[in-house]
Predict the 3D structure of the following.
Amino acid sequence: MGTSTQTMNKSDLKLIAVLERTGGFASAQELHQILRREGDGIGLTTVYRALQSLVDDKIVDLLRREDGEAIYRLCGDTHHHHLVCKSCGDTVEIEGGAIEKWAKTMAEEFGFREVGHTAEIFGICSKC
């Protein structure tokens, strides 16, 4: 992970702790509500700012639901993609070999460099 706990501020550490407890994806508003219920006076703007910092440092994974809302969770150390159930929200991390190859090919074809990408695949899981 990109940032050590020595350089994180209190808000970063609080959000990491909440994300560890939730164990899955949550919106900034949901995380803010959890912290407020626990008696923390953190503001929503601070939550968004801390989440963006954690995303930039690759500590937190950002995913956009089909409706465009950003949701967050602690992520692993390797680049990955997601299968997301549209019904229950269950999310599975997957490798994306074909996506990686396609993104590299497209970038080269159009002369792009320092390319990054995200890919989320939405559907209905076997439990739903």
In short: DSSP finds four helices and six strands in the chain.
